[in-house]
Structure formats: structure tokens, C-alpha cells
Amino acid sequence: MKNYIIYTLLIGILFVPNMGCSDLDENVLDEVLEGSGTADLVTGSIAPVYAYLRRGVWRHTTGFGLQEVASDEAILPNRGGRDWFDGGKYFEAHRHTMTPTNVLARDTWNGITINISRALTAIEVLTPLADQG
């Protein structure tokens, strides 16, 4: 009886892995398996534009804060200390008494112009690719 179990296990171990092997001839319909490698160029051009939108333009300390605090949609309370005062830039935005030296306006302007330059760089890189294809 022991020999029967051993032979059955041995045959099972030898044949089971071979049962899963087959010739797979796949008919690829919607993929390109070889190409010129332009995907890295496209994502490398577009990624900096979209990444900077969140970090440099639409944060509460730049464009979002400039719009929301100035229009009374958001408030940033001063809790008696220096924690949320931030040099008074939000008070100036709320009171509409901003001067050209306001940090909130300066940072928003710089963020938007940096993002515009990144978008123009992406356009310059991607325009010849669009003309080729």
C-alpha cells in the first residue's frame, strides 16, 4: 500500500506541472509591443505641469488661499500667537488691503508663471511628436 501512495505522488508531481504548459498564440488587438519609446518623452513632458498644479498653484498658501480668504469663503483665525498669523498676509487678503509686497500675491504669481513656463516647454516638446504621428 505504501508503494502505491509513493508511485501515485511521484506520477502526480511529474505530470501536474506539464498539464499547465501550452502554446499560447495571442492575437494582440489594442497594444503596440514595439515602438520608438515616445511614452517616456510624453509623460516626462506632461508630468511636471500637472505635479506643480497641486504643489505650487492650488495650495492654501498660494492661489487657493488668495481666492478663498479674500472672498470670505475661508478663514484662518489668529489664535493669539504667531501660529497662523503668517506675517499678516491673510489679514491683508481678507481686508483687501494688499500691497505689492504681499507674500500671498507674490507666491501665487510666481507659482502660476512657473507652471505656464512648464506647460510651454511641454508644448514645445510634444508639438513635433504630434506632427510626426
Structural features:
133 residues, mainly alpha, 62% helix, elongated
Please provide a written account of the structure.
With 133 residues, this protein is mostly helical. The chain contains 5 helices and no strands. Helix 2 packs antiparallel against helix 5 and helix 3 packs across helix 4. The model has no long low-confidence stretch (mean pLDDT 80).
| SS content category | mainly alpha
Helix content: 55-70%
Radius of gyration, CA atoms, in whole angstroms: 31 Å
Order of helices and strands: HHHHH
Oligomer: single chain
What's the number of helices? Answer: 5
Distance between the termini: 71 Å
How much of the residues is beta strand, in percent?
under 5%
List segments where confidence is low: pLDDT < 50 over at least 5 consecutive residues: none
What is the topology?
Blueprint: H1 2-19, H2 38-57, H3 63-70, H4 89-95, H5 103-132
Summed up:
Helix content is 62%, strand content 0%. It has 133 residues and is mostly helical.
